[in-house]
Amino acid sequence: MAAYGALVSVVNIIDQLQNHPHPPICIHQKQIESLTQAVTSLQHVLESYSPQGGYTKDEDYWESRIAEAAYDAEDVIESYIVDQIHVRARNDVENISSAEFYQGLQK
């Protein structure tokens, strides 16, 4: 199940950010809770589903969509981290904007 592995990866990134002594980005707690809740819900769905005789075409489609969304969330988080590192390297702290970041995660 590629989707389940992708969701685990997103959870790991969130955990690393929350437990890092000096995280490269700051994510609002409500955003973390919302993302964690969505990922956890999808994990539970995948855990409770066990197809008899393999996945149908529709099930394959939904699993690939879940995996794609998880990979996209990872990309948004990682891109934001890189952007913030570049901003801090230029000492341009006042121009740090999180609007695009939150919009990306919302998608």
Stretches where pLDDT is under 50 for at least 5 consecutive residues are: none
Intertermini distance: 22 Å
Please state the average pLDDT score. Answer: 81
Helix content: over 70%
Number of domains: 1
Radius of gyration: 16 Å
Summed up, the helix count is 4
Globally, the shape reads elongated
Fold and architecture overview:
This protein is mainly alpha-helical and 107 residues long. The chain has one domain. It is built from four helices and no strands. The protein has helices at residues 2-19, 29-48, 57-89, 99-106. α1 packs antiparallel against α2 and α1 (2-19) runs parallel beside α3 (57-89).
What can be said about this structure in brief?
By secondary structure, the protein is an all-alpha fold. The chain is 74% helix and 0% strand. The chain has one domain (2-106).
